Amino acid sequence: MSHPTANGIQLSRRRFLQIIAGTAGALVVGVRMADAGEPPLPPQWLGDHFHELGAYVRIDQEGNVLVGARDPETGTGVATALPMIVADELDADWNRVSVVQLGLGVGAGDNGKPQWTYGRQRGGTGDSIPAAWGDLRQAGALARWLLTQAAARRLGVAADRLRCEAGTVIAPDGRRVTYGSLADDASKLDLPQQAPPVKTPDRYTLIGKPVGDVDAHAIVTGQAKYTIDHYEADELVAVLLHCPWPDGSLARIDTAPALAVKGVVKVMQLRPEPGQAPGQTVGAPAIAVLAENTWAALEGRAKLACDWNPGKATAADSTAFEQQANALLGGDAAPTTRVRDDGDVVKAGKRAARRLEATYYQPWLAHACPETMNCLAVIEQDHARLVVPTQAPQAAYAVVQRLTGLPPDKIEIRVPRVGGGYGRRLDHDYVAEAVLLAKAAGKPIRLLWTRDEDLTHDYYRSACVHKLGATLDRKRRIVGWTQRMASASALDGRGVPADHLWTSEVAANQLPAGLVPNCRSDWYALQSALPRGPYRAMPHLANAFAVESFLDEIAHASREDPLVTRMRLLGAPRNVPLGNGATLDVGRLRNVLQQVADRIGWKDWLRSVNGLGIACWHMDGAYVAHALEVSRQGEVLTIERAVCAVDVGRVVNPLGLQGQVAGATLDALSTAMNLAITCKDGKVQQRHWKDYPLANMAQLPNAVEVIVAGADRPPTGASFLAMPTAAPALANAIFRVSAVRVRRLPLMKEFLRLF
Questions:
Q1: If you ran DSSP here, which 8-state letter would residue 537 be given?
Q2: Are the C-beta atoms of 201 and 81 separated by less than 8 Å?
Q3: Which of 368, 573, 732, 742 is the most exposed place for a label (fewest CB within 10 A)?
Q4: Please, what CATH class does the domain formed by 318-365+460-754 belong to?
Q5: What's 205-251 look like in SS3?
Q6: Where do the CATH 3.30.365.10 domains begin and end in the chain?
Q7: Position 110 confidence tier, pLDDT thresholds 50, 70, 90
Q8: 227-311+373-448 maps to CATH 3.10.290.10
């Protein structure tokens, strides 16, 4: 197996390089070994007429190119964008490119440890493109190098005098040879001693051009297959009835009525494994009904007669949780963690000309993925094969390996297009359930969660309370800022040190850090029996609503244009050090803010009949701003326009980026307006869409106007970039049109209460 060295790449006798993850974004990328122990490639990649030219590239003699997409496609467009990166470096003709979704790439390394074939594989986390930017360009460059070397030998021309264009190698005298005619020869060449150079931006031909989603035709024609569409000939369908309390237990069960249903084969019990982290084992005790078909399984579940012992989780109550938060924030208790402490906020407060305070409340949230949790598991004595909608195939592998004890090269995980992730599928309790059932039943299991199970047994985003304070001088400048936040960490119980539990709840470098001389951020830990886990755009989603709403309140109290207040806070364009190597590019943030203001017609904000609201944010080197226009007829609010500007550095696929920005905006608005999970006596009360209503078309804007403020910098993530600022921009617009200041979500319920 090949390994990187300080001087470059060691050749392997099979001419294949192994992908090795490096540091600081540097990756050495090559072709996987074709040993028997490696997992099989997808069926489309098999056949002698295709020739391997890299871990992600195959070319046939006709010039057709297959490019593999390594990260799970959760709707973020990575199955298009990642292959675009490879294809651009390869100088492939995109019209001849087909994309294949790669499953888990794992082989047996030293001491039986897994060796990842494709490097990092994770989707829907906002970092697929920046994580791939280095290694996927190198993969394409390697394939292009092999083709160029083969062409040089055939044409009798030095390789450095050849150029590649749209699947063709061209000599200085105009002679051309196609990639298809070169593929066989290129696949037999030894690899270079050092990684080939990648293109400079001026040579990009595909990156930056709008390209439609590679799955679009299959989706609109109903041909796209999700995990829930996959079957095994002799499978049993399994549906679950979970205990209402995560730490409860089964008190009594009568399985006879369920077993009497035609087609029901077995009724089995599942229990969480002691000592395992949340999301890595069964989430709550459950009864599984196994049947020959879905209808029989559901009928059998409906006829189960059982009682549960509640355990300690009955203490969980969303109202009591909020009361605990208020008590903590209203008292003198020391914070669990002082996240940031710049300057001297106490001294700034004593000298202030004005002090302002406000408290903001946000509810528990469920992921509510369109495709509920499901998994197809085939567990045999010497092999495991799973089809699973996961955002993290390597984490799913860890669960399968622990439960089966199989070596890495005997575990196969396929990942079709995922019907929504939002962080929920970074946890794999449903995978553990499917594997345990398949082992016990001795047959393939197709596990299906119903919607009620999906809503009542999620890994939720914690409710949170923010108490914000600001001090202003006589020139309306913010000279002091405090934020005290109380929530239950999503990282609790997941092996994270106690002094880092705050990192899922608040960001140390979030606005207005670095812009206010005296700035303090405190986090107060709350306890809850409700399971918590990763959630889309956390921690920014919760914090931006509080911070950007409060800035609007400051502007109103100062009798000032909210845009002017924000621009004064940002100051002149410059790079502001935020600590730990992070930097805020004020110019880029001002730019997106000014662009949405100009597009929405902000100059008329005070005279407009409708309400205009604005908000901005930054995260991980990306910048975003929203401006919304809202009209009101009595108690009826209508979002007339929504404008969003983003700066994510270099854009790989502008069309895909626009889709992500629009989708995240609508998701954020729906979440802010309607959604809340409540808990009473330890039981989640929302069970169906009527209890957890996503926004309908009438509640949402007809379109989201997207402005891409491109920059010649390495790309940053974008899948949830537009989430944080949509809700505060909406709340600020509602205040302008109604004089109702909403400090509690969900917004519509609170607006009607205050109106």
A1: T
A2: no
A3: 573
A4: alpha beta
A5: CCCCCCCCCCCHHHHHCCCCCEHHHCCCCCCEEEEEEECCCCCCEEE
A6: 4-212, 227-311+373-448, 318-365+460-754
A7: confident
A8: no
Q: Round to whole Å and give the CA distance between 19 and 210.
A: 29
Q: CA angle at residue 562 from 558 to 566, to 5 degrees?
A: 100
- Residue 552 is encoded by which pair of tokens? 């609007």
225 vs 479: CA distance, rounded Å: 55
pLDDT at 311: 85
Using the Cα atoms of residue 428, residue 431, residue 437 and residue 439 in order, give the sign of their dihedral: negative
pLDDT in the model for residue 111: 84
CATH (one of 3.30.365.10, 3.40.1190.10, 3.90.1150.10, 3.90.230.10) for 4-212? 3.30.365.10
Helix (H, G, I), strand (E, B) or coil at 565: helix
Q: What is the mean pLDDT of residues 558-587?
A: 97
Single-letter amino acid code for the residue at 132: A
Number of helical H runs and strand E runs in the chain: 17, 35
Per-residue model confidence (pLDDT) at position 297: 98
How far apart are the C-alpha atoms of 217 and 471, rounded to whole Å?
Answer: 55
Helical (H) or strand (E) element with 454: helix 451-456
Q: How far apart are the first and last CA of the chain?
A: 68
Task: Please tell me the distance from the alpha carbon of residue 514 to that of residue 574, in angstroms, as a whole number.
Answer: 11
- One-character DSSP codes across 135-192: HHHHHHHHHHHHHHHHHHHHHTS-GGG-EEETTEEE-TTS-EEEHHHHHHHHTTSPPP
Place of tokens 């930056």: 208
Angle 552-557-558 from CA coordinates, rounded to 5°: 95
To the nearest whole percent, how much of the chain has pLDDT over 70? Answer: 94
- Outline where DSSP puts E strands in 388-444: 411-414
How far is 78 from 616, CA to CA, in rounded Å?
25
Q: Which residues pair with 108 in a beta bridge?
A: 114
What mean pLDDT is predicted for residues 702-730? 94
- Residue indicated by tokens 């040993």: 35
- Cα separation, 502 vs 34, in Å, equals 44
Q: How many residues does the chain have?
A: 755
- Sequence-ordered list of residues with C-beta below 8 angstroms from that of 26, at least 6 positions apart, any chain: 134
Helix (H, G, I), strand (E, B) or coil at 647: strand
> Considering Cα of 439, then 441, then 446, then 449, what sign does the dihedral take?
negative
The pair of three-digit structure tokens given for residue 288, joined into one six-digit string: 């599984």
Type of residue at 303: K
Nearest to 417 by CA among 665, 218, 663: 218
CA–CA separation, 726 and 747 (whole Å): 12
Segment 544-560, tens digit of pLDDT: 999 999 999 999 999 99
Residue type at 19 in one-letter notation: I
